[in-house]
Every structure is written in structure tokens, then in C-alpha cells.
Amino acid sequence: MKWYAAILIAGAIALWSVSAVHAQEGPALQSELITPLPPISEESEAVDTPAPDSKSTEKADAGAGILLEPGEKLVIPEDEIIAAPPKIWEGTIDFGANGTEGVSQTFNLRSGIKAKRTTDATRFTASLDYVNDTNYSEEIANRAFLEARNEWLFKDSRWTYYIHETTEYDEFQPYKMRVMVDLGIGYQFIKNETTSLIGRTGPGVSREIDGPNDDYLPELNFGLAFEHRFSERQKVTLEVDHIPTVDDFTQYRINTRANWEMLVDAERNISLKVGIINRYDSTPEGAPYNNLDYKTMVVWAF
Question: What count of other Cβ atoms lies within 10 Å of the Cβ of residue 54?
Fold first, then answer.
């Protein structure tokens, strides 16, 4: 017999011996090591614990690690309640379309987007309006107006200073694109729960890209921004920018934007908007003086 077989047999005998000893002493060892639990009485089986309401449950979740008696509510001091962070971004998406089919075939598309970010120190706004019209599948209007403004606010003051940019694209103008950048100061004439009126002024520069006057032109900007809420569902807005050239005030541009909005579905934040965008140029270089876009659109706020 090989040596490792002898080791296995010896180990088996030793294991059998230890098992026999434990089998004889098992009850004594179990009584020393295991203490049986007391029997469950009928009263403990029928304990009626009142169910806490939803508010107390939410409060108990908020106070993690705190043990409450059945039916007891957790009360959190007001100074320890952490408020949700304020909403700083808001915006809208606009869409409108109309057309005809028959004697004439037209299709007119209006769309836009607007975003606003407000903090204690700054206020940023940006908007884009786009127009595309066709007649018998031939494009007769294709233009866009982009505007962005950042304002720095002074605490406990009506004064602000800002930087402002506009980009005008028009497929049917002598130029393809006109870009303007200006900066200056603003003053809040009216500010309450229903009405706001801000005046702004400052120097700027513009350029008509791919046009007959493809050069930088120094300008001034005098602007007003007005907003009034008639109720929780209706408001009007009006923005006007008068932009003369520095060396000749008889050459100027006026950009006007006016809108009336009515909330039609508060649950889904859907409104109806009626508005105009008018761009006047005293030196149109063969194009019309006015480019007027009027619109009726559905607006979704986010």
C-alpha cells in the first residue's frame, strides 16, 4: 500500500473519532452556545401599527438615520430645509406655416427660438427668427435674424452695461449678411410685477458682407425694450433699436420687434403668438426700404 493511502486512512479514522465525541457532547454544547428566543405571544402577533401618511414618510426619508415611533412625524426646522436651486434658464420655440394650393401655390414658413439666462449678476438673451416663402416652388423669401445680448447687473441699481450682437441674413438683399456689434449702458426706467421698460445706448460697428459697401461702418445704437403683462395669460413685448451712422445721422437703420402672446394650455406651456419684425434701412441700395415679417405662431415654452 502506498504511503499516501495510509495517510488518507489515518485522517478518516481521526475525523470519525472527533465526530463521535461531538455527537455525544452536542446537546450540552448547544445549550451553552445557543439561547432560544422566547415564544411569540398572541398579543405581539396582533400589534396594530398606524400607517404614517405620505407627508410623514417623505419627511422620514429626508431625515435618514432618524428612528421614529409608529405614527410619529418628523418635523424639520425651516432653517434646515434646503430649497431647490432657482431656475435660471427659460426659453420658447416658435413655429407657424401657411400656404395655398390651386390657382396659386404658396407655402410660407415661420420659425424661431429664444433663450434667456438670468442670475444675480448677469442677464443673457438670444433669439433667432427665420422666414422662408415659396411661390410655385420658387423661393421668394429666405431670411434670418439672429440677436444676442449679455448684460451685467449692478446690485441695488437700475444701471447695467451690455454687449450686443445682431446678424441679418437675406438671400434677396444686395448683401448676403450684415453683422453688427455694439456695447454700452442701460437704465431700467420701470420695473414691477407687470411692467418693464429698459433704455440702452452705446457705440457699435457693422459690416455688410458680400455687398457693395463691404466695409466696417461706425454706428450708434439707441434702444428701448418694453414688456407688459395684462394677466397671467397675456403679455405684449416691444423692442426698438435706432441705429444711425456716426458721421451722418441721415443714414440710419431701425429694427422693430413687437409681439402679443396668449397662454392657451398652461399644463403644456403652449401659447399663441402674433407679432411683427420690421427692418428699415434709409440706404437700401435698390432694395425696399422696409422688410416686414408678420406672423401668427404656436409657441412652446421650456
Answer: 8
Assign domain 89-301 one CATH number from 3.40.50.2000, 3.40.50.150, 2.40.160.40, 2.40.160.20. Answer: 2.40.160.40
CATH 2.40.160.40 residue ranges for the chain: 89-301
Question: Hey, what amino acid is at 113?
Answer: I
Residue 192, all three cell numbers: 414691477
Measure the CA–CA gap between 295 and 99, rounded to whole angstroms. 13
- Residue 296's DSSP bridge partners are 274
Number of C-beta neighbours around residue 295 at 10 A: 19
86-129: pLDDT as tens digits: 789 999 999 999 888 887 889 999 999 999 999 999 999 999 99
- Residue matched to cell numbers 417623505: 58
Phi-psi region of 15 (alpha: psi -120 to 50; beta: other; left: phi over 0): alpha
How far, rounded to the nearest angstrom, does the alpha carbon of residue 122 sit from its chain's CA centroid? 16
The torsion region of residue 242 among left (phi > 0), alpha (psi -120 to 50) and beta comes to beta
For the CA atoms of 261, 265, 269, 271, the dihedral, rounded to the nearest 10 degrees, stands at: -20
CA angle 165, 167, 170 (to 5 degrees): 165
Beta-bridged to residue 113, according to DSSP, are: 93, 128
Alpha-carbon span 165 to 279, nearest angstrom:
15
3-state SS class at 28: helix
Angstrom distances, CA of residue 196 to CA of 91, 152, 172, 229: 18, 17, 36, 9
C-alpha cell at 23: 455527537
CA contacts within 13 A on the Cβ side of 88: 9
Query: In terms of pTM, does the model score above 0.85?
Result: no
Show the cell assigned to 160.
Answer: 447695467
Range with the poorest average pLDDT among 34-43, 85-94, 193-202 = 34-43
